[in-house]
Amino acid sequence: MAINTTPVAGSEPVNDGFLLNSTNQYYIDTTGGTNLDDLSDAKFARLAAGISSITPAGNETASNDAYYDGGAFGSNDITGKRPQWTCSGHRLVGDKAQDYIASKEFVVGESLKTRFLWVNSEGEMIVSEVTMMTIVASGGNANAKQTFSFVLGMNGAPVVPNGKPQIVASGEDGLYKLADTATA
Q1: In Å, how far are 47, 55, 97, 107 from 52, measured between CA atoms?
Q2: Each residue of 60-111: pLDDT tens digit?
Q3: CA-only gyration radius of the chain, Å
Q4: Comparing C-alpha atoms, which of 168, 33, 55, 12 is closest to residue 110?
Q5: DSSP assignment, residue 163?
Q6: Which CATH class is domain 22-62+77-179?
Q7: Where along the chain do its domains lie?
């Protein structure tokens, strides 16, 4: 299931149909909300400034079974998924997304959960509850910019927002919300 939204600006193929990774847009909800049924209270900050790498991983659980009728060869069945996004770059103080994540560096429990919004290169959108993990808000060589890295681990299945929402400025500097195209 995907929302047929307008492709992300700059998502034209650069060479033989290949898209740049930078045409994906990622947002983190700075309210700490986890309700996927009602996104009206979400205040999303874009994960972009200072972020140089975002690597998704399926983090799959596989059942590996071998039966006598298979001649000692096994099969793989994917029985579960816990997708994750590993993000890294440089710490940019004052960036809404980075400041929110960095504020959770030494936190444990439910306060590490929030909503994550991903708009892929074709404009398809999903929202999921994630846990912010492995937050590193400083470090590196003395003569280098501070590093910044974290992992977002999905909790449960993602959802595709109803209708055809757009990402619009929320009125607060650097924050966004979802709005119906009819009201955006």
Answers
A1: 10, 10, 14, 25
A2: 999 999 999 988 899 999 999 999 999 999 999 999 999 999 999 999 999 9
A3: 19
A4: 33
A5: S
A6: few secondary structures
A7: 22-62+77-179
